[in-house]
């Protein structure tokens, strides 16, 4: 899926605000080339732009309560990417995302831990 880079939550809200429910706010956002991961105060939203033009878009919503576990792998000496893997109830395979060195993977882990533990 490519390497993720941090996106300002305000800019993400302006672009994806129509996806949010009443009282829902984007806490963090990451762009993976054309795709986006949104961390809201109630769920993860995966924005998957499809096709050559990217006009067809899939919005996948994962409530934090559906996340059964997750792992964060930090970057190493030769492998410069950090990786987030999320297991979701009812899905046979986990969702996996790579983050470039500019992303604080501990921040990602802390956000998930705070919401999944609720």
Automatic annotation (TrEMBL):
Please name one Pfam family that this protein belongs to.
bPH_1
Q: Which residues form the Bacterial Pleckstrin homology domain?
A: 1-116
Q: What is this protein called?
A: PH domain-containing protein
Q: Which organism is it from?
A: Pseudonocardia eucalypti
